[in-house]
Design brief:
alpha+beta; Jelly Rolls; 50% helix; 4-stranded antiparallel sheet
Length: 192
């Protein structure tokens, strides 16, 4: 599947990048067309891509004591990766699975690293994406540690209503750090 430079410009519209930086990013862009339940990354593989969801929904999760734990969801307009694996070049514990047909625009590690060394604008763009990713992760961790389940659900419903509507309840419960039964009670209370 080939993507146009206009589609890449749309992906990058929130960033003020020169035509040269956009063209450089476009030159290394890879496109993946995933089917529902197809894996983009499996446990034990090294994460080679910094991805962007052009269309669809991705779930990133891992196993703990035999249970699937949802780390996060990525939908249209979201960037995603397995940070430790991507930066340390080690096997990932995270799994990336398409929950619906999904189109991923991706930047391969070596190519993006080379481009960042050549083009400071691209390096800044990538660093800003990484900062946003890390801030989101910190907020999620704080939420899991310090907020009640009801508050976590209400924040998710407010900030990510599209995920609430599209992801199975069992994955949402896992993401919120609660059981499916608790999610049912929390939803009932939120809707009353």
């Amino acid at each position: 599947m080939k993507v146009t430079i206009d589609e890449v410009k749309k992906m990058l519209e929130a960033h003020t990048l020169s035509e040269k930086a956009i063209e450089d990013l476009y030159s290394i862009l890879q496109v993946f067309d995933l089917k529902k339940h197809q894996f983009f990354l499996r446990e034990g593989q090294v994460c080679n891509y910094w991805g962007y969801i052009a269309q669809g929904l991705m779930r990133v999760y891992y196993y703990k004591k035999g249970k699937e734990i949802t780390e996060f969801f990525a939908a249209e307009g979201d960037y995603f990766s397995s940070l430790e694996s991507y930066f340390k070049r080690t096997p990932s514990i995270l799994i990336q699975e398409a929950l619906e047909p999904t189109i991923v625009y991706a930047f391969e590690y070596d190519e993006l690293e080379k481009l960042c060394r050549k083009n400071s604008e691209v390096e800044h763009f990538f660093r800003k994406n990484l900062e946003n990713f890390l801030v989101f992760s910190q907020r999620r961790l704080d939420s899991l540690q310090f907020e009640l389940a009801q508050v976590r659900y209400e924040k998710m419903a407010k900030n990510f209503p599209h995920i609430i509507l599209r992801a199975p309840s069992i994955y949402i419960a896992s993401y919120l750090g609660i059981t499916p039964e608790t999610l049912s009670r929390v939803r009932a209370k939120a809707n009353s």
